[in-house]
Amino acid sequence: MLRWVAAGVVAVLAVAGGSSSGGSSGGSPTTPAPTGTYLVMSPGPVLDALGADPSGHPIVDILGHPANRVSGHLDLTTVEVGQPITGPSIPSAQHRPNATVVPYGSVYPSSPAPRSTAGVVAGDVNSALAAAYCQLGYPKALTVTSVETSGPAAHVLQPWDVLVSVAGRSVSTVDTLRAALAAQPAGDTTVAVRRGGVAKTLTVRLGPASATARLGVSVDPRCVPPFTVRLNGLADIGGPAIGLMVALAVIDKLAAHPLSGTATVAGTGVVGADGRVGAVGAPRLELIGARDEGARTFLVPSRNCAEVRGFLGTDADLIKVDTLQGAWQALLDRQSGRPVPHC
User: Is the pLDDT confidence value at 1 over 80?
Assistant: First the structure.
């Protein structure tokens, strides 16, 4: 039995029961292993972001808006994490082919970041989705980015809710939100939002004026579409490295001129809300996983190029990417036979 856990800037698959410190499905163990404990990482499964999950639902599901019919494959890659090892097991593990040994704490921090229970998408890819929506031309709005699991708005507000008003006072910036909250006493207060383009009026019990978080949400101006994009089959995947391929799949399903053909392109990359693509932690393992599934073209963050250049010889066409827009343009150029940047 396998489960997915958060692990820095790689998408990681762990063997259930492999950690002596336990942990719930989809999360990190809460107790660090002793010093001198290591984990063996190896290539994990590859998922087509344009395909379907095991239940047959689209991994990128566009709800309430027409979606393009797509024909290619945009493969996102993962890394599998084995059981903890110590002492005499370490040297033999270091000589395993297609594997690497890393300190336990580099995958499971001693203080795991809290994860919101409210929302329909994995928090690790929200920044990548925001960048995709901006590239598609959707306007910015004051958006809930996370909800404190025990805060006043828990189970009421959700990530991607667009805040419209608090107690009838319009809110469109962080300052106007603060002012509206400051004017309200503790207790039940109406909060108007747009969720997936649909207007909703909700009731939140505000904390006292002295509370650090009266509403219990984080907000940011982000590009938001007037409909819902639901991600299926990714709820237990941790790590933001899947962001690049998920964002490209969203663009392909919504762009005026989608990709054509049946080519398979794999890739990895951490995408910020500004569209910049950051490095990942185990690009060689991800390359191996993609190659073993038949991919020959791989999108690589430019900061990882030195590590993977020539790694697979002539087996791989490594396209260098710095931004989400650049990655999309590289796919269009490759499709049209134009030059693309390489590692």
Answer: no
In the chain, % of residues over pLDDT 70: 85
- Mean pLDDT for 278-307 is 92
User: 71: closest CA among 264, 261, 328, 331?
Assistant: 261
pTM to 2 decimals?
0.84
114 and 252 together in one domain = yes
Residue 317 pairs in a beta bridge with 297
DSSP 3-state of 330: helix
Please list the residues that pair with 81 across neighbouring strands: 14, 41
Is 246 found in the same domain as 175?
A: no
Q: Which two tokens stand for residue 86?
A: 């110590």
A 10 A CB-CB count for 331 gives: 24
Task: Kindly tell me the burial class for residue 185, based on how many C-beta atoms sit within 10 Å of its own C-beta (0-12, 13-18, 19 or more).
Answer: exposed
Report how far residue 267's alpha carbon sits from residue 281's, in angstroms, rounded to the nearest whole number.
Answer: 13
In whole numbers, what is the pLDDT of the chain averaged over residues? 84
Q: Which domain covers residue 52, as residue numbers?
A: 2-118+229-336
pLDDT tens, position by position, 294-319: 899 999 999 999 999 988 887 789 99
Handedness of CA 333, 336, 338, 340 (dihedral sign): positive
